Amino acid sequence: MTAATRPGLRRVEQVMGTAISLDLADDLPAALLRELADEVFGWLREVDARFSTYRADSEVCRFDRGELSFAETSTDLRTVLERCAELWGATDGFFDAYATGRLDPSGYVKGWSAQVASDRLRAAGAANHCLNAGGDVRVRGHSVTGRPWRIGVRHPWEATATCLVLTGTDLAVATSGVYERGPHVLDPRRGAPARGLRSVTVVGADLGLADAYATAAVAMGPSGVGWLDRLPGHLHAVVTDDARQLHSTALPLAD
Amino acid sequence: MRRALLAITGLAAGTTALVVLKGSPGATPVAAGELPAGPAAVPGQSAPATPGATRPPSARPTGTPTPKPSASRTPRPKPSASSGSKAATSAPRRTTAAPRTTTAAPPATNRKVTGPVVANEFGNVQVQITLSGTKIVNCLALELPSGGQSGQRSDRVDAAYSGTSGQVVQRQSASLDTVSGATYTSRSYQQSLQAAIDQAR
Question: Which of A169, B103, B170, B177 falls between 20 and 30 A from B6, CA-CA?
Answer without folding.
Answer: B103
